[in-house]
Design goal:
The chain has 1 helix and 4 strands. The chain has 75 residues and is α+β, with helices and mostly antiparallel strands.
Length: 75
């Protein structure tokens, strides 16, 4: 399962960097409902932005193998 999650995690890290300028310090999968490129990947992560770090729970929605949206809640 972890090998199947690796591309999803890498996509999530890229999304955070490209869309929000966040550097991922750590990311742990808490739920993986992505099948055939569609579904939701839930993670707990620590990100760095502008020199500060913060802890988040985030959910990435995938469609056709791409992230279409994300929701986040500070931990």
């Amino acid at each position: 399962m972890a090998d199947m999650e690796t591309p999803l995690i890498e996509a999530a890290k890229r999304y955070l960097k490209e869309k929000y300028g966040e550097d991922t310090v750590s990311m742990t999968v808490t739920g993986n409902g992505v099948q055939d490129g569609n579904g939701v990947l839930a993670v707990d992560c620590t990100v760095r932005y502008a020199g500060s770090t913060s802890d988040w729970s985030k959910k990435f929605s995938f469609a056709g193998g791409r992230i279409t949206s994300m929701s986040a809640r500070m931990r």
